């Protein structure tokens, strides 16, 4: 029903952002940050809190004209640095992961805005859109946890 009533770009955006960007990355990152790095639980929680800072300050940057574009550009530079360099110092790794988290936050806000707009246009499909977003995220997490189990053995 959603694919027929809504534009294909919304459905594919939900799959990409909720399923791959948030779901799979959450599944992959949980195993690597909590078990592979051999951190104490309190250390893992501190670092997870630091990485989530962009979600807190995002609303400040979105109010600036063109701020989200600058935000995304910075994030797109930082994330590959973390992915390609395996010998990063702790501060550099946290900075790169914060950039990745910031990119996720901007994408999340964007798809949430599209979902809100479509819910206003098609009120009868609002609950279906919410369910689709949740299922997509859950499936992405399951795939991420499954893949990480093979990668980090």
Describe the structure.
It is found in: Membrane. It comes from Solanum lycopersicum (Tomato). It is a multi-pass membrane protein. There is one protein chain. The protein has 153 residues and is an all-alpha fold. It has a domain of 104 residues. The chain is 85% helix and 0% strand. The chain contains seven helices and no strands. Helix 2 runs antiparallel to helix 6. The longest helix has 32 residues. It starts with a helix and ends with a helix. The model has no long low-confidence stretch (mean pLDDT 76).
Helices and strands, with pairings:
Elements: H1 2-5, H2 8-36, H3 41-51, H4 53-62, H5 67-84, H6 90-121, H7 126-151
What's the gist of this structure?
Keywords: Membrane, Transmembrane, Transmembrane helix, Transport. One of its GO terms (cellular component) is membrane. It contains 7 helices and no strands.
Shape: globular
Output the structural class.
Answer: mainly alpha
Radius of gyration from CA coordinates = 17 Å
Number of strands: 0
Instruction: Note the run of SSEs as H and E.
Output: HHHHHHH
Protein name: Major facilitator superfamily (MFS) profile domain-containing protein
Keywords: Membrane, Transmembrane, Transmembrane helix, Transport
Main location: membrane
Organism: Solanum lycopersicum
